[in-house]
Amino acid sequence: MIRAVVFDLDGVIRHFPFGHSDEIEHCHHLENGILDATAFSQPLLTEVTTGLISREQWICRIGQIVGSCDAANEWGEQIPQLDQSILQLMDILRNRGITVAILTNGTDTIPDELIAQGIRKHIDRVFNSAFIGYIKPDQRIFRHVLDALDLKGPEVFFTDDSRSKLCGAAELGFVTHHFQGVAPLREALTNAGVL
To answer: Cross-referenced Gene3D superfamilies, in alphabetical order (predicted)?
Structure first.
């Protein structure tokens, strides 16, 4: 029996505007794609998502690498768009007595972002790699979730838009779903007996 549904954050609940990075790069005469490529390069991404550096330090390093702090700051100020259908689904789950949580490979500013965007009121728990010290798909972050919720793997449904992030959860018995839209997610939740 599923007692908790855990959602990834970016790419599931919220989405960054397509093409916005291109506009910033064009305005600052930077190579196309360099901001995203730098931000999500290793070891920089792991450092910020495991809490070794702050989001502010991450943005500063991006600016230093690409040669434009202004461009990096503009990139960092992008506001993702919320998927209201996912928020509504979360509310339905909570009304059915299901614990709803977020598990994100995030930065130290995630708690404030969730409040500012109105996401926090739709969820019961937040699990953020920047505070836990491990990132998906490491089994240790999923064990942390199970311990915190006092649940066993098969009692938790986890969805992420990155298939590669599901393996650690699946190895611990989570019911996993590769997110590709709200309709397939609802179908998977129905098949799992949650809806």
So the answer is: HAD superfamily/HAD-like, Putative phosphatase, domain 2
Q: Which amino acid would we find at residue 60?
A: C
Domain end residue (candidates: 76, 101, 119): 76
pLDDT value at position 17? 84
Across the 195 residues of the chain, what is the mean pLDDT of every consecutive 10-residue run?
Answer: 98 91 95 96 98 98 97 95 98 98 98 97 98 98 98 98 97 98 98 95
Asked if residue 105 and residue 50 are part of one domain, the reply reads no
Helix axes 20-27, 69-76, angle to 10 degrees: 160
Domain at 130, CATH number: 3.40.50.1000
Domain that holds residue 54: 20-76
Helix 69-76 and helix 55-66: axis angle, to 10°?
140
Q: How far is CA 6 from CA 47, 149, 152, in A?
A: 24, 11, 13
Q: What is the DSSP letter of 182?
A: H
Q: Are residues 72 and 87 in the same domain?
A: no
Map tokens 């930065």 to a residue: 107
Can you say whether the dihedral through the CA atoms of 131, 134, 135, 136 is positive or negative?
negative
User: What backbone phi and psi angles, to 5 degrees, belong to 97?
Assistant: 85, 10
**Residue 162 gets which letter from DSSP?**
-
Q: Do 173 and 129 share a structural domain?
A: yes
